[in-house]
Amino acid sequence: MSLPAADDLFRPTAPAAADRSAPEAGAADPADDRGSGRARRPSGRVRHDEKMTVYVTSDELLELEHARLLLRRSHGLAVDRGRIVREAIALVLADLEAQGDESALVRRLTDG
User: Fold this and answer.
1) HSE (CB half, 13 Å, CA atoms) of 97?
2) Residue 82 above 80 pLDDT?
3) What average pLDDT does range 58-74 have in this prediction?
């Protein structure tokens, strides 16, 4: 039995920065969206290289799952919870950028 070499185990999963110099067609650099007045777009169904852990209550998780099932049943959208969360983040950040102090995020964070 032979084991894989360290290079096989610890290889990068994303292309090197030099390989990513040419953007894909239709892809925009996220930094380009800041302050440009263009609508912020969620990443959608792509491979995500970054990970973040968010803790939610059991009620919040059930509500998220209910939303996922509602989207599937009523709108024919088969999406996972991560996609719903990324869409929600995009909506909140776009509202913050457009509305500033009057955004729903600022109002909710200052009210609580």
Assistant:
1) 15
2) yes
3) 97
- For residue 57, the number of C-alpha atoms closer than 13 Å in the C-beta half-sphere is 3
Give a three-class secondary structure readout of the chain. Answer: CCCCCHHHHCCCCCCCHHHHCCCCCCCCCHHHHCCCCCCCCCCCCCCCCCCCCCCCCHHHHHHHHHHHHHHHHHHCCCCCHHHHHHHHHHHHHHHHHHHHHHCHHHHHHHHC
Confidence of residue 111 (pLDDT cuts 50, 70, 90): very high
Take residue 89 and report the two structure tokens written for it.
């983040």
Classify 99 in phi/psi space as left (phi over 0), alpha (psi -120 to 50) or beta: alpha
Residue 83 has pLDDT above 80, yes or no: yes
Contacts of 106 (CB under 8 A, 6+ apart): 96, 99, 100
